Every structure is written in structure tokens, then in C-alpha cells.
Predict the 3D structure of the following.
Amino acid sequence: MRKMRLIVLISGNGSNLQAILDAVQSGDLPAEVCAVISNKKGAYGLERARKAGVPAVVKVKWKDQDRRDYDAELAELVREYRPDWIVLAGWMRILSMSFLKHFPDRVINLHPALPGTFPGVNAVQRAFQAFQQGEISQSGVMVHLVPDEDVDAGPLLAQREVEIHKDDTVETFEKRIHNCEHILLVETLKNLAAHMEDQNA
Ligand code: GAR
């Protein structure tokens, strides 16, 4: 059986990347992480990739570079690895169509909130604040396809609710969110792998 080829794009810590690497390593996820690409030089996720023996590539956008030019170069780089899926795991840049047009229905984003809520940065903190103000009673995480430049929106692949407790701090809530993300992202990728296998059968 051919293993599904993944490219993981990150900007920071890479705990979700780690969940993928661990699942690949244990044989739980029939996939190969072909490369990890970061738009930030110091992203800790790069170190995680190296430790797992996966190519860790830095692709920084220069100050005056047009974002569409950057995205076109990024697409070139990604294409060389012939990925089945491109996983945005804490990738904190909005990808333009200069990138996305090359990978229709192939880009997956993870977001630490439920569909239609708290798009963009600091979603966990904003959800927690909304809870404290009595506006929401729970939040969650989602995994979706990225068809266009709409931020943290697109056809849903999976979602899971995460409770917020009265005695939570933003840190305890964030920990629960991340734990949920690590599980949901790997589960979603496993489903995609199973689907790919069905199609190849
Ligand atoms: C994750 O919570 C991910 O959902 C979020 O960044 C974090 C990265 O953590 N992404 C977004 O907010 C996208 N809008 P990690 O680097 O430890 O995987």
C-alpha cells in the first residue's frame, strides 16, 4: 500500500506536527511526512522535524516581497515533494490563490475553535474571554479544507466540541484544546488515508 505523502506547514511550536510525527512513527498513521516547512526561522517545530529525521525547510517572506510571489515560490517548493496533502498545523499566514490554485482540495487547516467562530489569531484566548462574558458555554476545534483565502473557513472534515469549565484558567482550557487538536488532526488524516486506500483498491 502506498503511504500518503504529507507536507506540514508550521509557524511555531509544532505540537500538532509532533502528534503527526508520533502517529507516523508508531505505525498508527500510514503516512510519510516528506518535509516540514516553516515561515519562521526559529520555529521549534523545525527542531521536532529534524529529530524525527524529516527535512526541515525555512521559507521566509522577505519584507518587500509581494505575498503572491512568496506564495508562488512556496507552491513550487511544496510541489517538488509531490504531496497528497498539505497540512497547515499552526501555519499563521493566509495563503493566497497563487498557492492554493496548485492544490485544489489538497490543503487542510486546523483551527482551535468551532466552525464560524473566532477566525484568525488567538482564537483560544478570545473563546475563553467570550465564555467569561457569558457569551458561549463551550468551544472546540475543527479541521477543514482550504479552497480559498477565507480565513479559517472551508468544507469541514471534522470538528469536536471542547468544554470550558468554571474553574478553568486560559492555560487549562488551552491545554484541553491542544489535546483535542492532537487527537482530531491525526484521526482526520487516518480517515483520509483510509479513503485513499479505498480509491486505490
Ligand atoms: C494550534 O492551536 C492551531 O490550531 C492554531 O495554532 C496552534 C499551533 O500550535 N492555528 C490557528 O490558530 C490557525 N488560525 P502548534 O504549533 O503547537 O501545533
Summary: The two ends are 9 Å apart (CA to CA). Residues 85 and 106 are 5 Å apart (CA to CA). Strands lie at 4-10, 31-38, 56-58, 85-88, 107-111, 138-145, 156-163.
